[in-house]
Amino acid sequence: QVQLVESGGGLVQPGGSLRLSCAASGTILSIYDMAWYRQAPGKQRELVAAITGEGMTNYADSVKGRFTFSRDNAENTGYLQMNRLKPEDTAVYYCAAELLAVVNEVRRRGHYWGQGTQVTVSS
Fold this sequence. Notes:
Low-confidence stretches: none
Mean pLDDT: 96
């Protein structure tokens, strides 16, 4: 079974940093695009950052220059380094990935989501 597991969330003061991880588990053959989304209370889920299989990135305007998305293909893991955090960055952060895996002995390409990790920026 394929799973995306996020970690690294927590409580941080404004101006601080956190590093989120998104690890894909299961029989993973290839990970194509990965992305981080976030959802604050009462708001719609929004795209924060994305990275292609070749490592090309794009970011929401609100996080440009503060967040960096990287990936370790050998470890099937993506990382979101978040610096100079602001209270408005507070949200549940979700990882998503398009990947090819073996599921029930069948090669299957699909889109997967993690369970989310809470990031709270507050003094």
